[in-house]
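If your schedule permits, I should be very grateful for your opinion on a structural question. Please examine both parts with care and let me know of anything in them that strikes you as inconsistent. The record follows directly beneath this note:
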Amino acid sequence: MQPTLLIMAAGMGSRYGGLKQLDGVGPHGEVIMDYSIYDALRAGFGKVVFIVRRSFEPEFGEFTRRFGGKVAYEIVEQEIETVPPGYSYAPERVKPWGTNHAILMAAPVIREPFAAINADDYYGVDSFRVMAAHLNTLTSAQNRYCMVGFQVGNTLSETGGVTRGVCEVNDAGELTGVVERFQIKRTAGQIYYADETDQPVAIPDDTPVSMNMWGFTPDYFAHSEALFKEFLQASGQNPKSEFFIPYAVNELIQRGIASVRVLSTTSQWFGITYKDDRPAVVQRLQELHNAGTYPERLF
């Protein structure tokens, strides 16, 4: 059974100013997702599931035409109102519930091990290779997950702060904790994130972080649903609260329910957080085509 690639593309792109998921940055108008899909398919993934907002579906329908029947895919909606029966939330809420809520939306269409990624991050050929290889060992497993780890110093934007899941890893290569940190940036040669009181906290360049390249087995959906109910009880009335993957994974690790293997990769991450990031991404992708990493046209 081939693993599935789940692409989280429901973010509103407020800092970018539009649907950055569909911004053509490749030599022939390719979007970053095109490269992730291409790399995943040649690594052995079997199908793609897109998580989108209902309002984005016309644009995504247009986007998927480029596949010409070469890619098996499904489109699933992530909406604010999709919460378990009996639960409520702040009426002034304007954005979905975050990345782990996005994963939960895919439960009806995924029955096999799967990788979950962001739509607007370039993860690289080797990342999909190591992810596919590990997922293929988990066909009948439960509560054994994985993630591809990147060094925080290789994941920054030159135009503003970024959000990353800062990880703790033991000597066995297992994740022992992950916390979503905000406004991570380099200042005077040192990397800092802003803590809960907006005070800067320094971290080393080689600190492992999650770029939301996670590997799960289908049992993760049941855990996510249970944790989402807990989350709604505690934070559902906060209009800006978000049910992030690191929150859910960390809870499962701390409760002794699941383990997460941290996979190493030779790939270099890059992506678009702000509009000013775009020229560098365009240049990097052109260089990869020139080097023969990708053919003239992907699909």
